[in-house]
UniProtKB/TrEMBL annotation:
It comes from the Eukaryota. Belongs to the 'GDXG' lipolytic enzyme family. Residues 1-37 are annotated as: Disordered. InterPro entries: AB_hydrolase_3 (IPR013094), AB_hydrolase_fold (IPR029058), Carboxylest/Gibb_receptor (IPR050466). Residues 1-10 have a biased composition (Basic and acidic residues). This is Alpha/beta hydrolase fold-3 domain-containing protein.
Amino acid sequence: MSHPQSKEEPSPLVADSTVNHSQNQDPTSLYPDTPTTLDTLSPVLTKDVPLNPNNNTFIRLFLPHKAVQSSSNSQKLPLIVYYHGGGFVYLRASSSVNHDFCFNLAKDLSAVVASVDYRLAPAARLPAAYDDGVEALKWLSTTDEKWVREYGDVSKSYVMGTSAGGNLAYHVGLRVSTTAVDEFGDLKIRGLILHHPFFGGTQRTESELRLGHDEEVLRHGLSLSLCDMMWELALPEGVDRDHKYSNPTVADEGDEKGFDQIKRLGLKILVTGCYGDLLISRIAGFVEMLKSRDVDVEDYFGEGYHGLELLDPSKVEPLFTRVKNLIYKC
């Protein structure tokens, strides 16, 4: 079921820096769509459910098969709401690299995973993806979908995202923390998991200057020019990369209220990164910003490159161990 990428293959974002897609066509041919399966021999069952037909968005659900096989469903599984990466421009929830990651996440952590397919730029600039992220949480809080209601425990929900999805998870977390509790019914977010979050800014950081022309980094990860291009396409027209959507260190009054609510609600935040990622200085600065607000944040940094655990699934165990520890201590 897993389709690991060879270490010799370039990142899809480096390999394809053009934008020629619609919501129904992903330009990143390295990662074609993976179909869902209800095959009883599979350790994880998968299916798509519509989110907002007007926006052509959907949620791909991942359910460990052992939950269905159990004679008693008294012990419900935690719910992980996942937002995929791709610079807000590329990829979908059904893209093989995202499908396989969520498949393994559900299997190894014994969780129901809801992977959100959100609108992409430039056709739908930010905050469209954030809007879709919040809409997905509201749908999960009210749906009668059996996989969510019968097998998942929405009162133990965690919001997770990789790269642009990590950025999305952060902004969705801020929004939800300042929203009336009754808008989300029984759904309770216990923690945020920001996996290699995609941030930017107008001034180059130390790691961007140091790694921006490193051939190994370019082969596996992002380039500065590609990051700049994706932000240009994703941000609202007329703003630069120091807008808060891109640069979270320029938090405004609304964000400060969000930090206070995150503390009041007792949300735990896990931020992960790799030293070979040119964004590592931004990620580390983001962690320090949260700590300065007394937010309960844990960082987990190690060797590797941007998107390591998706592009090389053999490296996923340490990340999943950290995520599991967060889930079962919240």
